[in-house]
Amino acid sequence: MAKVSVVNMEGKEVGTIDLNDAIFGVDVNENLVHLAVVQQLADNRQGTQKAKTRSEVSGGGKKPWRQKGTGHARQGSTRAPQWTHGGIVFAPVPRDYSFKLNKKEKRAALQSALTNSVKENRLIVLDELKFDEIKTKDFSKVMENIKAAGTVLVVINGADRNVVLSARNIPEVTTTSTDQLSVYEIMKAKTLVLTKDAVARIEEVYA
Prior knowledge:
Low-confidence stretches: none
Distance between the termini: 13 Å
Strand order of the largest sheet: 2-1-3-6-4-5
Strand content: 15-25%
CATH superfamily of the largest domain: Ribosomal protein L4/L1
């Protein structure tokens, strides 16, 4: 099992934790990680883009000029794509970009992402993360104390309103709960911060 230091909100080491190899020590499957990331990005697409084909634009009912004798190329309608305000060739239409991964693939991708964060030393385990009031300054101080650099993903167990709202105005920090973990957010983060409660919950659910 991987052994990781546990730090408090002041950045001081207060112990160690053994991480479950079934989650934090698996063989990284890059293909599944890629599929999971693509799936989330595809699910986020609205798919509402739309342009009109020649059958949908207005006008063009009459032939612009006679077929022969004008010196111009033959034309049948001003709705054709080569005309200004004509239709678009192969115009985009609303569509659903989402696709499905089965449960085993999702779990394996998440385990690979978490394992990767351990291997790359991007994981920080916090003893606890609690605030008596909503204060961005206090949250920033904690991130500074634990040396959480770059884009940071903070994972807590459950919904702590004070934690979430304290972090909301910090551009490079994202907070999430254990039941909303996503491979995309884990891979995007330069630093992954888990509370001890979050680690226990992840090991309980995803082992």
